[in-house]
Every structure is written in structure tokens, then in C-alpha cells.
Specification:
The structure holds three protein chains of three kinds.
Chain A (H helix, E strand, L loop, with lengths): L9 E13 L4 E13 L3 E5 L6 H9 L6 E6 L2 E2 L10 E4 L11 H11 L4 H14 L15 H13 L5 E5 L7 H18 L2 E6 L2 H7 L2 E6 L2 E6 L1 H6 L4 H6 L4 E10 L3 E7 L2 E6 L9 E6 L4 E4 L7 E10 L3 E8 L4 E7 L13 E6 L4 E4 L2
Parallel strand pairs in A: 3-8, 3-9, 6-7, 7-8
Antiparallel strand pairs in A: 1-2, 1-4, 4-5, 9-10, 11-12, 11-14, 12-13, 14-20, 15-19, 16-17, 16-19, 17-18
Chain B lengths: L18 H22 L16 H8 L1 H32 L8 H13 L2 H19 L5 H24 L4 H8 L4 H30 L2 H6 L7 H8 L6 H26 L1
Helix pairs in contact in B: 2-11, 3-6, 3-8, 4-6, 6-8, 7-8, 8-11
Chain C lengths: L4 H5 L10 H37 L2 E3 L5 E5 L2 H7 E3 L6 E3 L1 H33 L3 H16 L2 H12 L4 H8 L13 H25 L3 H9 L4 H12 L1 H16 L3 H7 L6 H9 L5 H30 L1
Antiparallel strand pairs in C: 1-2, 3-4
The chains are: A alpha+beta, B mainly alpha, C mainly alpha.
The structure holds adenosine-5'-triphosphate and magnesium ion.
Magnesium ion (MG) binds next to helix 1 of chain A.
């Protein structure tokens, strides 16, 4: 499993999928021309705000919905219109959807029974899977008699037992409390590692997405905005929405005054400009927005050396960091997080004049 | 002063003078006649107003009356077939009308299913009398099927109610989960939907059985000669006044109804 | 991953492509298919025959029951009018008028009786603690699901000349000869109020249960008396329940057959008995059919009021 992800086979391919929900009164475009390639044994996360279409995308892969246009492929095979019970794909539902009239064991063996596996094999697999989620003790309990976290594990075991090619998880952790949720995050990573199954994980929690994913897709209003590893998404957001949704960002409006193979010059005001390494994107527009993470900028009292100048408006101490809000001369606000290193604490008074220093390598030009 | 009147009673916004006594009186009025009827069915005398001692003799008399045996048997046959058929059809109809996207014609279906509840029984009875008379004239068949068909029809809405209520309270995600776990639609129905719906179906069956067993008006109009059920037989006996024997039969029938309806209530709250 | 689910199901794999519209059509077709058997039984053995009743109102009565297939207005004509057999003079059918009048009068009276008994009962149940409330509701509904004929018998035994009430009254020396209650209009009225009481209590309970008692607290806070609160706050607020309960008692009372037959002793006919009579000794099916349709129309109009009342409540 040390092979780079980019060389693995493509497990799931979403090819220009559009899903429109029509009713007599309205028409909702839940997914708008979505294309994605999810590779084998990848922990792939779909991240986006509520109502952006994450669940719809999962339901297309599982077969509970069919796209209005576009294709879904599983290992190159077109499964767009196959009914859910013929797809080697299993789902862990948000509220678990455990069958209330069956015991834990009966829930876990359900899929195997439907696949008409021999009895002995079913017993063996169920034992294995219950072991895997550490629920071997509670097999004969009724599903209503176990805790939320245990129900979560049973739901996982049930979906893993048929050894699906792809496991879909729809906000599977959001019903758990904070501590349990952190345990389950680790557990999920372990399970994915041990089973070698491709996980497609849905969440609207950016922290969860960043910590767990091999790669992730940021979705908004039915469109995939950016796909990449967590650090690519965090460090090189291509759109304002991505930069805003994941972490904090400052946005600076500027004009491109020069552009060649090595660098792009962005002018913020007659007095301030930066030169960024080019090659990120070739830009046609003159006006651009540049994103800067608050921890990537520093402050200096030597204002003439800095790119931007302003006045300290507020200062909040957070222990590891101190957050400063600077009111720039342009009138915009700019946030800077300064790390507090013992012996090297910097301190700037409210109202004092200050310079903001920017590192060109940590600035990102956004497409609009 | 205002407060002075109720000094001894803790003030409650919910209290209204006389309401509780009136309610208790109402419950007494509701149950007293029934309880009296049951008690006097154990009376050893022939006078149903004078208590002469405990005895089961009227139950024995009723039990040994061949006519009573015959009509009881017929009532049970009709109620069994009608309630099972009605419950089956109502279950299918509930599956076809609940948890679906609204479709055209759904309102018409509701109206037809609930129609027996809206039209007075005497009118339905008359309509069936006329309709079956035409068929009887055309086919010459005078069997029990007419009665069974009529009972099945008016039992459908009663069976439909609890089944539909149960189905509406069921989360569709469970069926989705089953399909995700390779269950075909038929397997999903058999392994998930029906087992979860079962209490509703049983409740519907109980209700349908009681409704069929108790019916007087439609049966009275639809039955051919010699097709009395227990209730129409009892109605016919009335010409001779209420005999202790009728009392005993009534009490027995009452017992069966109360039992089945209690089961219905228990199932419904499960 | 040699055991992957994909291989097992691979034989099932046929690519069925259908548009959303086609899928939805199939779903609707399946739903209709599921409803069809129930609908067939109901149309054959409940709804459909009503149309035949309508046709029969326009036919000639057969001499021994049944009809002669000839157009005639006689059925409708005879609902309110009668023709003298000897001189063909037309006069009002006063027997029918009085039966109509009795039906309406007794239904209204029984509705009011049920309301007077049912309102405090519903209020009582609604103000119990949630645990005991279901028990009280169960006690109210149990009689409703038991045989109507038997409950009518039960009432009959209580009010007979040798019944419990008269026996007690005579034994305690209040009266010497029994009070005649059975086989009077009063007994029918009482019987109907008795058998349909649960239909009054349940909708009343549903509205009283939703009553916002903070409003009543506010009224008491402003020095209202109990009577004032009842008349001017509670009753106006639960009016939809009162209307619903009243209609639910009124409708079956109007079409009652068993209760007037058992408790009226054949003397005090109501509409239901008049209809049945036309198919029995009366042998006038077209008239019976016309009376049935008349009853049906009255009931439907009442139901319409009921439904509109429900809708207004939900607004
Ligand atoms: N069956 C449906 N009929 C009509 N509209 C639907 C249906 N399912 C989803 N939608 C709409 O499609 C859009 C996307 O819904 P979806 O459930 O995929 O969002 P989501 O990203 O999962 O949101 P959340 O985080 O709240 O679960 C929403 O606007 C939703 O209202
Ligand atoms: Mg969702």
C-alpha cells in the first residue's frame, strides 16, 4: 500500500453526472456536471456545506438514485442504472438504519444471506467482522439495547461483511459525541487500512476531512470546486469558496501589472505590490483576488519594509497564538496569527502603526 | 372576595366545578347497562330483572341450541374469511398509497377505500340488496359468497387504518439499507417491510374480525333465507322479548369483542 | 477480495436504462396495481351498487318487490307525496313527513345529550395525567368497538317496565306502576346518545387536549369566574371539536336502523326503518331507493361541513 495513489486503479468514476430533482412545483439541481475519479483503496472525502449534494452523490454511487445525465463506473464497468442490490457497494447510513427486529448478528449476516453464501462461511465472516469492529461480545443483543457508539460499529460491520469494493459513509460520525467521534475517526482509518476497501466518506466538518482523507473533493451548490490531498486543498485553494470554507483566509484585491514565465506581479495599491512565482495558473483577467492564510503573514514595526501598512485594531491572546486584526490603509481588515514562542514573544499595542509582511510563496491567486 | 369561596381547595386552572363528577357519572352510565347484562346472564332464574342465584345454565342452554350453533359457526366463517381477505387487500393498498410520491388518483383511491365509513350502513345494505338481487336472478347462485363479499368490502377501511398508520411511522431508510445489502425488492418486502409492519397487520385483522362479527344492518339486508349470522339471529329473537339465553349469547360475544379490541390496542401502542 | 459481491451478482447484470420519468411511471403503476384488488372489491361490493340504487329510483315498483324496467318518477314522488288509491288526489305523505321529522328531531336531541354528557367527560380525560389518560380513552373506546346490538339490548334491559330502573324505583317505593320508557321516542333518543357517545368524546378530547391553559390562567388573572372561563374562553376555543363530535354523532343517528327498531318497538320508525320497510313488507323498491339517496345526500352535506371544519381548524 506504499504505491502512490495516483498509480492505483480507478475504483469509482463519476463522469459528468448531473442530477435534477423535478417536482410539479420546483426543480432542484442537486449535482451539476460532476466528474470525479476515486482510486482503489483510497480514503476519499466529500466535503461541503449542507445541501450541496454530498448525499445525492453517494446515493448515485449506491444506486438509490440514478443521474439525470452522465455515467457512474465501477472498475470501468458502467453501473449507472443498476439497481442497488446488484452493486458491490455498501453504505453506512447516517442514523445507522439497523434493522430493529433483528439481533446484532442477524444484522451483520443479512447481506451475506442475501448473497446466498454458505452457512459456514457466513458464520465465519460475521465472527471476523464483529472482531474487526470489537463487537464480538454483543452479537446476540437486540440492536435497541446497545449504545450509539456500538450501533455505529454494528452499522460498519454490517456494511463491511459482504466485502464490498467500495464503502460509502454518509456523515457517519456526526451523531456521536466529541470523544467517541475522535475514537471512531482513528478506528475508521484502521479499518480502511486492514480491509483494503475504498472508502468514500461524506462530511461537512472540515477538520474531520483534513485529518482523515487521502484525497478530498470540495463541493458547493452541486459543483465540485477542487479535488486534492488535504494539504493541496489547504495550501493551494483555487477558489475563494474553498479558501473560505477550509480554514481562515485574508483576501486582497489587486491588479496584474506584469506576467511572464517566472513571475506574476500583483499591484495592491500604487505603493504596494508583490511578485509571485508564476505557473500556478495562467491568468487572463487583470483584476485578481489573492488569498493569504493568517498564519502565513507576519507583523513588523518597521512599516516601510512591509508590503501592506495599517493600524492594529484588536489583539486576542489564544495561548499558542495571538490573533491580530489590522485595519489596512485601504480600509480592509487583515488577520494575522502570530505564534507565541517563549522568549521571542512579539507584542503590538492596539492603535499602533504596523506593517504586514507577506511571503510570496504562501500567497495563492484565486480564479473567480 | 373572589378567593374566599374556594379557600379549602387548592387553586387549579384545570378545575371546573362538577365536571369530574359528571364524567364519572358518564362512565358509570356507559358501563352499568353492559355490566348488568353480563351479571344477569349468570342469573339462575328466568326473570332477567330478579336475581335468583348464580348459574351457568343459560350458557348451557345457548350452547346446546342447534340453531345457535349453526349461526355462530356461520358468523365465524364469514368473519374469518372476510377479515383475512380484507386485511390482505388493505395491506396491499396501504403499501400502494403510503410513503410514495403523490400521484394522480390517490385522492380517489382514499375516497373509495373510506367510502364504507362515510355512507350510512342502511344505504350500503340497500345498494347491495339490489345489486345482489340482480346477480342472483342472473346466475341462480344464492350462496354465502355475497355475505362474505359485502363483509370484506366494509372491513377493508377498518383494516387499512392501523396498517397505514404503522407504515407511515416506519422509516424508509431500513428498506433502502436492505437493498444496499443485496436484498431484491421481494426479499426486502419479506425480510424487512412485512416483519416490521406485522403489528399493524394484526391490529387491522383484529378490528376487521370484530367489525364483521358484530355487523347487523348490512347482513340483515344481504343475507338470503337461512343465512342468519349470530347478530341477525339475536335481532330476530327479539320478537319474543329478551330471554336469558340471548343475554348469555350477548355476554359471550361481548367477551370476544373486548378481548380482540384489547389486543388491537396493545398492538397499536407497540 | 476474491469473494467480492460483484462476482456473485454478475449474472444479474443487464443494463436497464430508463429515464426518471419512466421510472416514476413504473412506480405509479406498481402502486395502482397494489391498490387494484381492494378497489375492485370495494367498487363491486360497496361503492358501485350505489349507482344502481340511483337508477332504481327512476323505475316502476314490481308487484312483489323488485322493479319493472320502465321509467317512472313514482319513487321520488312518493317520498313526500301520496296518491289516493280511489280518486287519484295528491296529498302530502304525512306519515313520511313525520318520520323525517322524527329522525331529525331525535338525531338532534341525541347529539345534544351526547354533547352534554361527553363534554365534561372529554375535559376530564384531557386533564388527567398523561399516564392515566390512555386508560380513560381506552375505557371510552371499548364500548364503541363492541356490538351495537348488544349495547342496545343492555339499554333496553335497564329501561324496561320490569327493568332495573323501574324495579329499583318500585322496590324503594318511589313509584307504584312502572314508568313507561321503552318503546318511546325517548328510549330511541337515549339509546342513540348512549351508543354513539364515544364518537362525541374522541374529537372533543382531541381539541381540549390541545387547549393552551396559559390562556385560562390569563383569564383567571384578570378576575374571570369559572363560568365565564368555560363559556367565553374554553368553549369558543374547542368549538371545532364540538362541531366535529356533533356531526359524528348526528350522521349515524340519522341513518340509525338497529336502535330505533329495538328500542322503538316498531311504533316509532326512523328513516332507516322506513327504507328497510320498502324492501320488506312495503315492496316498493323505487321509493326505498329514493329514500336512500335522500339520506345519502343529507349525510354527504353534513360530511362536507365536517371536512371544511377540519380544514379550517388546520389553517
Ligand atoms: N429526493 C429529493 N427530492 C427533491 N430534492 C432533493 C431530493 N434529495 C435531495 N434534494 C435536494 O438536493 C440538494 C442536495 O441534497 P443533498 O441531500 O445531496 O445535500 P447534502 O450535501 O447531503 O446536505 P446535508 O449536509 O444537509 O446532508 C438539496 O437542495 C436537496 O433539497
Ligand atoms: Mg446529506
Amino acid at each position: 500500500m506504499s504505491d502512490p495513489i495516483s498509480q492505483r486503479q480507478i475504483a469509482v468514476e463519476i463522469d459528468s453526472a448531473t442530477k435534477i430533482f423535478e417536482s410539479e412545483t420546483s426543480s432542484v439541481t442537486a449535482l451539476d456536471n460532476v466528474s470525479l475519479k476515486i482510486r482503489e483503496n483510497e480514503f476519499f472525502t466529500l466535503l461541503g456545506p449542507s445541501g450541496c449534494g454530498k448525499t445525492t452523490l453517494l446515493r448515485l454511487i449506491a444506486g438509490f438514485e440514478h443521474p439525470t445525465s452522465g455515467r457512474i463506473r465501477l472498475y470501468q464497468e458502467d453501473i449507472t442504472f443498476l439497481p442497488p442490490y446488484t452493486r458491490p457497494v455498501n453504505t453506512v447510513f447516517q442514523n445507522y438504519a439497523l434493522f430493529p427486529h433483528m439481533t446484532v448478528r442477524q444484522n451483520v449476516s443479512f447481506g451475506l444471506e442475501m448473497l446466498k453464501r454458505p452457512k459456514g462461511e457466513i458464520e465465519k465472516t460475521v465472527d471476523e467482522v464483529l472482531n474487526l469492529v470489537r463487537m464480538e461480545e454483543l452479537g446476540d443483543r437486540q440492536t435497541s439495547d446497545i449504545s450509539g457508539g456500538q450501533q455505529q460499529r454494528v452499522a460498519l460491520a454490517r456494511a463491511l461483511a459482504p466485502k464490498p469494493k467500495v464503502l460509502l459513509l454518509d456523515e457517519s460520525l456526526s451523531a456521536l459525541d466529541y470523544k467517541l467521534r475522535q475514537d471512531m475517526q482513528i478506528e475508521l482509518k484502521r479499518l480502511q487500512h486492514e480491509t483494503g476497501i475504498t472508502f468514500v466518506f461524506v462530511t461537512h466538518d472540515q477538520e474531520e476531512a483534513l485529518t482523515m482523507s487521502d484525497r478530498m473533493a470540495v463541493i458547493n451548490e452541486g459543483r465540485v470546486l477542487q479535488v486534492g490531498t488535504p494539504s493541496e486543498i489547504y495550501n493551494f485553494p483555487t477558489e475563494r469558496f474553498v479558501a473560505e470554507f477550509i480554514g481562515d483566509s485574508n483576501f486582497l484585491e489587486g491588479q496584474i501589472t506584469e506576467q511572464n514565465e517566472t513571475h506574476v506581479r500583483v499591484q495592491f495599491s500604487p505603493a504596494s505590490a508583490v511578485e509571485l512565482p508564476s505557473g500556478q495558473t495562467l491568468l487572463s483577467a487583470k483584476k485578481v483576488t489573492v488569498a493569504v492564510r493568517p498564519e502565513q503573514a507576519t507583523l513588523t514595526s518597521a512599516t516601510e519594509q512591509a508590503t501592506l501598512q495599517g493600524v492594529v485594531k484588536s489583539m486576542v491572546y489564544f495561548g499558542t497564538h495571538t490573533h491580530y486584526v489590522v485595519e489596512l490603509d485601504s480600509g480592509d481588515e487583515f488577520t494575522v496569527h502570530l505564534q507565541n514562542i517563549r522568549g521571542h514573544e512579539l507584542h503590538y499595542e492596539n492603535g499602533s502603526r504596523i506593517g504586514v509582511m507577506l511571503d510570496p510563496a504562501a500567497m495563492q491567486i484565486l480564479k473567480d | 372576595m373572589l378567593v374566599a369561596k374556594n379557600r379549602n381547595r387548592e387553586f387549579s386552572v384545570r378545575y371546573l366545578p362538577g365536571f369530574s363528577s359528571m364524567a364519572i357519572l358518564c362512565f358509570v352510565l356507559l358501563y352499568a347497562p353492559i355490566v348488568a347484562l353480563v351479571i344477569y346472564s349468570f342469573n339462575s332464574g328466568t326473570n332477567i330483572a330478579l336475581w335468583e342465584g348464580f348459574s351457568l345454565q343459560w350458557y348451557v342452554v345457548a350452547w346446546e341450541n342447534e340453531l345457535v350453533q349453526e349461526v355462530t359457526f356461520r358468523s365465524l366463517i364469514v368473519a374469518s374469511i372476510a377479515s383475512v381477505t380484507a386485511t390482505t387487500l388493505a395491506t396491499m393498498a396501504a403499501l400502494g398509497t403510503t410513503r410514495t410520491r403523490n400521484y394522480r388518483g390517490q385522492m380517489v383511491i382514499y375516497a373509495v377505500i373510506n367510502q364504507p365509513l362515510m355512507v350510512p350502513e342502511i344505504v350500503t345494505g340497500v345498494a347491495l340488496l339490489i345489486f345482489f338481487a340482480i346477480i342472483k336472478a342472473a346466475t341462480g347462485y344464492h350462496g354465502l359468497t355475497y355475505l362474505v363479499a359485502a363483509h370484506t368490502a366494509f372491513c377493508i377501511p377498518f383494516a387499512y387504518m392501523p396498517i397505514r398508520a404503522r407504515l407511515e411511522g416506519m422509516d424508509g431508510i431500513l428498506e433502502t439499507a436492505a437493498q444496499d445489502l443485496y436484498a431484491t425488492p421481494v426479499q426486502t418486502l419479506r425480510r424487512i417491510t412485512l416483519p416490521l409492519l406485522w403489528p399493524g397487520i394484526l391490529a387491522g385483522l383484529m378490528l376487521a374480525f370484530v367489525i364483521s362479527l358484530d355487523d347487523v344492518v348490512i347482513t340483515e339486508l344481504v343475507k338470503s333465507a337461512g343465512q342468519d349470522t349470530l347478530p341477525t339471529y339475536m335481532l330476530g329473537q327479539l320478537r319474543r322479548g329478551i330471554t336469558p339465553e340471548v343475554n348469555a349469547i350477548s355476554s359471550a360475544l361481548l367477551g370476544v369483542s373486548v378481548l380482540l379490541v384489547s389486543i388491537f390496542f396493545i398492538l397499536r401502542t407497540r | 477480495m476474491s469473494n467480492s459481491a460483484a462476482e456473485v451478482r454478475s449474472s444479474n447484470r443487464g443494463l436497464h436504462e430508463h429515464s426518471e420519468v419512466a421510472r416514476r411511471k413504473k412506480e405509479v403503476r406498481n402502486n395502482l396495481l397494489l391498490c387494484t384488488p381492494a378497489l375492485i372489491v370495494l367498487i363491486l361490493a360497496a361503492a358501485g351498487p350505489l349507482l344502481i340504487v340511483l337508477i332504481y329510483t327512476f323505475l316502476k315498483a314490481g308487484p312483489y318487490g323488485g322493479v319493472i324496467w320502465e321509467w317512472s318518477w313514482d319513487g321520488w314522488f312518493q317520498v313526500f307525496l301520496k296518491k289516493d288509491i280511489f280518486d287519484d288526489t295528491v296529498s302530502i305523505a304525512d306519515a313520511h313527513i313525520s318520520i323525517f321529522w322524527r329522525s331529525v328531531k331525535l338525531s338532534v336531541q341525541s347529539t345534544l345529550t351526547a354533547l352534554i354528557l361527553g363534554f365534561p367527560t372529554a375535559y376530564f380525560i384531557a386533564t388527567r395525567s398523561p399516564n392515566t389518560r390512555n386508560l380513560w380513552l381506552f375505557l371510552i373506546t371499548i364500548p364503541f368497538w363492541t356490538n351495537l346490538l348488544i349495547r342496545t339490548f343492555a339499554i333496553m334491559q335497564v329501561i324496561r317496565d320490569q327493568g332495573i330502573i323501574n324495579t329499583l324505583l318500585i322496590n324503594f317505593g318511589f313509584i307504584e306502576t312502572p314508568i313507561e320508557m321503552l318503546y318511546t321516542e325517548f328510549s330511541i333518543m337515549l339509546g342513540m346518545a348512549y351508543v354513539y357517545l364515544p364518537l362525541m368524546v374522541l374529537p372533543l378530547y382531541a381539541s381540549i387536549e390541545k387547549l393552551d391553559f396559559r390562556l385560562i390562567e390569563a383569564a383567571y388573572d384578570l378576575y374571570a369566574t369559572r363560568i365565564f372561563v368555560l363559556w367565553r374562553i374554553i368553549i369558543p376555543l374547542v368549538k371545532p371539536g364540538i362541531i366535529a363530535g356533533s356531526i359524528l354523532v348526528f350522521i349515524p343517528s340519522l341513518g340509525a336502523y338497529v336502535t330505533p327498531r329495538v328500542l322503538g318497538g316498531g311504533k316509532n320508525l326512523m328513516l332507516g326503518n322506513l327504507i328497510e320497510l320498502q324492501f320488506g313488507q312495503g315492496r316498493n323498491w323505487p321509493l326505498g331507493a329514493a329514500l336512500s339517496i335522500t339520506l345519502l345526500v343529507i349525510v354527504m352535506v353534513s360530511l362536507l361541513v365536517y371536512v371544511q371544519n377540519l380544514q379550517r381548524k388546520s389553517d
